């Protein structure tokens, strides 16, 4: 166990203990495994106020309930966070696909009451598992359809639409006692770089930023969002030198000062290369707290005790060297504890929420857009499902199944399926399908030249092909039947399979 000296610059042991506890309190670390590690429980006893769950920690809801119960035995008001957006980014349903459509499907329906109902049911499920802090919703305005990391995670391209659905999502989730964390401030929608890999840059003027990116965050603040997550993006109109997560101009002057936000500010994952590859993880954490962040998200990749201890030590050392004001760290820790207290007080709210297990499928069905061309015969027998697989982004991950094959196999016994990628995908599908009707499943056709070429080949030879687009429906609809789902959640696949049969 690492020990920190508790006397420095005249500080006594009580002051040292307080400093160490504050440094632990601002960390929101992940861990490995599906049970509560001894080191996590020990650090909770020493001041750790939050932990984070990822897909690797989830097997079933009963297992998560047991895990959170064991952790909370160490601290009753422990914040248990999860990155559960529903839709493509799911942790609770990481092995099956989400029971709820994501933001883009909800934005396509554009019924805020439906959005509120979906997030309420999600919150009810999270609370029942002992999870009380959700790093969602994404309030990014999808201004760039080629964005490699946001896409269907956004409610849409209109600031007004995104604003009203962000507010509804926050209200629905928090009505169950689960804190929402609106992200990625000041707006990640107009980027063409994934901040998991490098620092994205948004070169827009201040007027565009205020008119396009900020309205959803204003709406979230008005709706009472308990937390806001910063983005690792460089916006020169706000700060030409540092990305949002490390910028006092962005977090303190704009978010706290100008927008009047008083809740918790959480960083996006600090292991992401936009921060760790440029500033170093430990130094980046110190800079983030100094800039105005209150909680540090870490653990999507680095999920060991040594990481937690090194970040704790870096914060303590920064206070003692004068790089980080002690009152800033104390304020950040207090905000974390305030949110923990709110979740503890609101714990019974989920029990008052009526279960609505079918709301996700209802929403997915409402979101579909079906375009018919020509007079192709309806699908009545077994088909060949050809799934065109793009490389997944890190936020979505590669653990979660997607598509329509499983449901079509259930509805049309004898159906088979295969996955395809690359320049020869079209020819490979034709060879694999034989004489069967083809259902081609794509994801963001407009972003992938190989996928577009494969569909060209396929449709030239088999114009009766059904096309299911499970990403952003930016490409012109084509195929005998074209079904846009606005996301790849499990329920979107179910709704699309039903539409294939309905013709």
What does this structure look like?
It is a single chain. With 503 residues, this protein is of the alpha/beta class. Helices cover 41% and strands 12% of the residues. Helix 1 crosses helix 13, helix 6 (159-174) runs parallel beside helix 8 (215-222) and helix 11 packs across helix 12. The longest helix is centred in the C-terminal third of the chain and has 20 residues, at 326-345. The relative contact order is 0.13.
Draw up the topology in text.
Blueprint: H1 13-25, E1 27-29, H2 38-46, E2 50-53, H3 61-72, E3 79-82, H4 103-109, H5 112-128, E4 133-134, H6 159-174, E5 179-185, H7 206-213, H8 215-222, E6 227-230, H9 248-258, E7 264-266, H10 273-276, H11 281-291, E8 296-298, H12 305-321, H13 326-345, H14 359-367, E9 369-372, E10 383-388, H15 405-411, E11 416-420, H16 425-433, E12 437-442, H17 449-461, E13 466-469, E14 481-484, H18 490-502
Parallel strand pairs: 1-8, 2-3, 3-4, 4-5, 5-6, 6-7, 10-11, 10-12, 12-13, 13-14
Antiparallel strand pairs: 9-14
Helix pairs in contact: 1-12, 1-13, 4-14, 5-6, 6-8, 11-12, 14-18, 15-18, 16-17
How much helicity do the residues have?
Answer: 40-55%
The biggest beta sheet is recorded as: 6 strands, parallel
Please compute the radius of gyration using only Cα atoms.
23 Å
Number of strands: 14
Contiguous helical run count: 18
Secondary structure category: alpha/beta
Shape: globular
Side-by-side strand order of the widest sheet: 2-3-4-5-6-7
Given as residue ranges, the uncertain stretches (5+ residues, pLDDT < 50) are: 1-12
Q: Separation of termini?
A: 64 Å
- Proportion of β residues? 5-15%
Mean pLDDT: 93
């Amino acid at each position: 166990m690492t020990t920190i000296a508790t006397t420095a610059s005249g500080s006594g042991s009580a002051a040292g203990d307080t400093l160490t506890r504050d440094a632990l309190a601002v960390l929101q670390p992940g861990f490995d495994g599906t049970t509560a590690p001894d080191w996590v429980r020990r650090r909770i006893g020493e001041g750790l106020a939050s932990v984070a769950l990822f897909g690797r920690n989830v097997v079933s809801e009963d297992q998560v309930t047991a895990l959170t119960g064991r952790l909370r035995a160490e601290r009753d008001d422990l914040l248990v966070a999860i990155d559960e957006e529903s839709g493509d980014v799911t942790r609770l349903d990481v092995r099956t696909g989400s029971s709820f459509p994501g933001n883009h499907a909800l934005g396509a329906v554009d019924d805020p009451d439906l959005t509120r109902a979906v997030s309420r049911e999600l919150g009810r499920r999270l609370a029942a598992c002992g999870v009380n802090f959700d790093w969602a919703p994404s309030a990014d305005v999808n201004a760039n359809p080629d964005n490699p990391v946001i896409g269907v995670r956004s409610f849409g391209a209109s600031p007004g639409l995104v604003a009203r659905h962000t507010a509804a999502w926050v209200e629905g989730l928090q009505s169950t006692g689960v804190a929402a964390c609106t992200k990625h401030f000041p707006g990640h929608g107009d980027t063409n770089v994934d901040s998991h890999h490098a620092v994205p840059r948004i070169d827009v003027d201040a007027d565009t930023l205020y008119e396009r990116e900020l309205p959803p965050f204003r709406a979230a603040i008005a709706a009472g969002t308990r937390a806001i997550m910063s983005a690792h993006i460089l916006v020169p109109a706000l700060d030409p030198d540092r990305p949002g997560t490390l910028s006092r101009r962005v977090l303190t002057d704009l978010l706290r000062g100008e927008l009047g936000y008083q809740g918790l500010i959480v960083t996006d994952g600090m292991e992401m290369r936009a921060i760790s590859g440029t500033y170093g993880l430990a130094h980046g954490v110190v800079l983030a707290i100094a800039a105005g962040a209150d909680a540090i998200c870490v653990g999507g990749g680095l999920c060991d005790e040594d990481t937690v201890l090194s970040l704790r030590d870096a914060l303590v050392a920064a206070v003692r060297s004068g790089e980080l004001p002690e009152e800033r760290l104390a304020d950040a820790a207090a905000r974390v504890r305030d949110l923990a207290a709110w979740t503890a007080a609101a714990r019974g709210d989920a029990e008052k929420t009526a279960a609505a297990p079918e709301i996700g499928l209802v929403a997915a069905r409402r979101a579909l857009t079906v375009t018919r061309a020509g007079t192709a015969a309806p699908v009545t027998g077994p088909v060949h499902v050809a799934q065109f697989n793009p490389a997944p982004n890190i936020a979505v991950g590669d653990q979660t199944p997607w598509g329509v094959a499983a449901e079509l196999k259930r509805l049309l016994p004898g159906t088979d399926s295969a996955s395809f990628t690359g320049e020869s995908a079209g020819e490979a599908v034709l060879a694999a399908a034989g004489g069967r009707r083809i259902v081609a499943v794509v994801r963001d056709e407009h972003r992938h030249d190989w996928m577009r070429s494969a569909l060209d080949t396929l449709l030239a030879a088999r114009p009766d092909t059904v096309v299911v687009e499970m990403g952003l429906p930016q490409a012109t609809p084509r195929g005998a039947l074209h079904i846009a789902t606005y996301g790849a959640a499990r329920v979107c696949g179910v709704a699309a399979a039903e539409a294939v049969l309905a013709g």
